[in-house]
Amino acid sequence: MTRDEFERVVAAALERIPDEFRMAMQNVQIVVEDWPEPSLMEEVTGDPDEVLYGLYTGTPLPDRGADYGNTTPDVILIYQRPLEEDFPDREELAYEVEVTLVHEIAHYFGFDEDTIERYGYD
């Protein structure tokens, strides 16, 4: 799949996020990259060979103080190639992109891994 096609899959997944959540997301950039760097995978997961589909970087909403502002956007990275490799069926891929996007958006809203897992987006 081309980058443009994959970005359309990501955009469609974002459109399925309820309006109240999309509207509450301020100063967040969603970026598609091919693969995460092995050093990043090791830093995040402890294993450079671990599969990573997405990553949120920034300051979660609950952690922002009164002096928060004038900052670069938070970033949600979606990694195209690991998702395509693990989910070659287009419908499965679209579903997993949505799950990954919801997972990373949940981090933006301050949910930790345990909470996300309880809601079924692990």
What order do the helices and strands come in, and which of them pair?
Blueprint: H1 3-15, H2 19-24, E1 28-33, H3 38-45, E2 54-57, E3 74-79, H4 80-86, H5 90-108, H6 113-118
Parallel strand pairs: 1-3
Antiparallel strand pairs: 2-3
What does this structure look like?
This protein has helices spanning about 5-15, 20-25, 40-45, 80-85, 90-110, 115-120; strands at about 30-35, 55, 75-80. The longest helix has 19 residues, at about 90-110. The relative contact order is 0.18. By secondary structure, it is α+β, with helices and mostly antiparallel strands. The protein has a three-stranded mixed beta sheet with strand order 1-3-2. It is built from six helices and three strands; from the N terminus they run H-H-E-H-E-E-H-H-H. The mean pLDDT is about 90.
| Element string (H = helix, E = strand) | HHEHEEHHH
Largest sheet: 3 strands, mixed
Structural class comes to alpha+beta
Number of helices: 6
Radius of gyration: 14 Å
Uncertain stretches: none
Q: How many strands in all?
A: 3
